[in-house]
């Protein structure tokens, strides 16, 4: 039971408290770039979640079974980015071959994900936090869902911004960042939620 | 801007196409490492070094790397330099290493570096690429430091870790937290755009031009923004 509680805490804290976009600033570029419309936001969010899970599935065993064992820890960055890049490529090929419909929906976002710092960030953070394999998977699931949540919330906010009169120099990125800060502020209010969850 | 001398290439990165305020690249480290001037400066310099080295190497290899696999090649080159920088920082500046944490490794996926590799180094001579890297790196460092000064002085009442006593009672905690960073960054972008309005090159909403995926992703994600080949001429 203890283990299960731990997993719930990890999941909730990575979705709500340590939300990757809003409190750790990982994956800001797609967050700002692709959140204009709700369907795009959902597509990007789902793709990121899938890739994060797959990346953890691949990088955790490699770190523990290969890199640590042979004292190659310093190769972490280079190995992880290669794994993620090839993973994304393979995923795209597989989707194209077996599920053209899904490829139509998610395929366009996949090339963007290779250079998404959130994916590499999750893989590295899971190692740094000394998570077990299961914990790592749960935490990457949580991070992906957190990203999705932030994207969906933000796309709603942005459609409002588009309709409003914004001062000339604030148009574009500036007002978007300030709007993002309000969402981030709202998420800050959830900070205590996990500590008291099972208290 | 299209002048061919080295000086204009250098200044281009610092002012006209400042990666942070004009091209809006590398948002993640910009927001994450600017709570402290020391951290921001360290991040800027690390990025500067990686940028110069990768620009030089990519420019040297630009005729050797086949076009189809260029992005993976660039990523490997960049990752190699990032690893070197990581080891150097870990060995000589452990305090900085702890402060930057995962963001040091994430220089690999910093769009500025890949963007410059794709847009500049793959088409220009070694000398010009090195200057471009230097200019972009200095521009990045200056921008990071300017954000960090505002956030740290007003938010934590200190400068590079040294407390400023008379501000201690008036510090605005909000600014060193996550949302504060976004507000400061947003306001500075607005300021820069107000100062350069009309004078700067075409205003982009989001800088897909610098994103290496721009060509691939085409329409949906980047609102159909075309990959601009602005460096040529």
The main pleated sheet of chain B reads as:
2 strands, antiparallel
End-to-end Cα distance of chain B, whole Å, is 11 Å
Helix content of chain A: over 70%
Distance between the termini of chain A: 15 Å
Tell me the count of domains of chain B: 1
Q: Label the structural class of chain A.
A: mainly alpha
Integer count of domains of chain A = 1
Binned strand content of chain B: under 5%
**Average residue-wise pLDDT of chain A:** 82
The most extensive interface, with participating residues per chain, is: A-B, 53 and 57 residues
Query: Can you count the beta strands of chain B?
Result: 2
Spatially, the strands of the biggest sheet of chain B line up as 1-2
Short description:
With 199 residues, chain A is mostly helical. Chain A contains 9 helices and no strands. Chain A is globular and about 60 Å long.
Textual characterization of the structure:
The complex is a heterodimer of chains A (199) and B (233). With 199 residues, chain A is an all-alpha fold. Chain A has nine helices and no strands. Chain A is globular and about 60 Å long. Chain B has one domain. The longest helix of chain B has 31 residues, at 126-156. In chain B, 60% of the residues lie in helices and 2% in strands. Chain B has a two-stranded antiparallel sheet with strand order 1-2. Chain B is built from ten helices and two strands, in the order H-H-H-H-H-H-H-H-E-E-H-H. With 233 residues, chain B is mainly alpha-helical. At the A-B interface, helix 2, helix 4, helix 6, helix 7 and helix 9 of A face helix 2, helix 4 and helix 9 of B.
């Amino acid at each position: 039971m203890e283990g299960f509680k731990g997993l719930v805490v990890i999941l909730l804290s990575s979705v709500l408290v340590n939300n990757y976009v809003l409190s750790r600033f990982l994956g800001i570029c797609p967050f700002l770039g692709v959140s204009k419309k709700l369907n795009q936001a959902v597509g990007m969010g789902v793709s990121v979640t899938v890739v994060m899970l797959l990346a953890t599935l691949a990088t955790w065993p490699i770190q523990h079974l290969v890199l640590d064992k042979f004292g190659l820890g310093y190769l972490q960055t280079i190995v992880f980015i290669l794994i993620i890049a090839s993973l994304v490529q393979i995923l795209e090929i597989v989707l194209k071959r077996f599920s053209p419909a899904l490829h139509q929906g998610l395929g366009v976002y996949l090339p963007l994900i290779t250079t998404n710092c959130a994916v590499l960030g999750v893989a590295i953070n899971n190692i740094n936090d000394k998570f077990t394999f299961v914990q790592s998977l749960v935490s990457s699931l949580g991070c992906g869902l957190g990203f999705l949540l932030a994207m969906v919330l933000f796309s709603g906010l942005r459609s409002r911004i588009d309709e409003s009169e914004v001062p000339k120099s604030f148009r574009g990125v500036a007002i978007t960042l300030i709007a993002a800060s309000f969402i981030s502020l709202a998420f800050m209010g959830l900070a205590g939620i996990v500590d008291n969850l099972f208290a | 801007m299209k002048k061919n001398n080295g000086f204009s290439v250098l200044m281009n990165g610092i002012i006209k196409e400042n990666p942070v305020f004009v091209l809006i690249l590398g948002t993640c480290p910009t927001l994450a490492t600017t709570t402290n001037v020391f951290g921001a400066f360290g991040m800027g310099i690390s990025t500067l070094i990686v940028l110069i080295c990768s620009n030089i190497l990519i420019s040297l290899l630009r005729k050797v790397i086949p076009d189809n696999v260029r992005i993976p090649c660039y990523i490997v080159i960049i990752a190699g330099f990032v690893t070197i920088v990581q080891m150097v920082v870990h060995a000589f500046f452990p305090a900085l290493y702890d402060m930057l944490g995962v963001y040091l490794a994430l220089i690999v996926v910093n769009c500025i570096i890949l963007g410059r590799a794709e847009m500049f180094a793959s088409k220009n001579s070694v000398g010009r690429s090195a200057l471009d890297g230097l200019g972009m790196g200095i521009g990045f460092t200056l921008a990071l430091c300017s954000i960090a000064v505002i956030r740290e002085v007003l938010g934590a009442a200190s400068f590079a870790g040294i407390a400023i006593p008379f501000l201690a009672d008036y510090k605005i905690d909000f600014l060193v937290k996550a949302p504060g960073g976004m507000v400061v960054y947003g306001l500075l972008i607005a300021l820069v755009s107000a100062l350069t309005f009309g004078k700067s090159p075409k205003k982009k909403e989001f800088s897909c031009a610098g994103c290496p995926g721009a060509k691939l992703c085409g329409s949906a994600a980047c609102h159909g923004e075309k990959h601009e080949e602005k460096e040529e001429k």
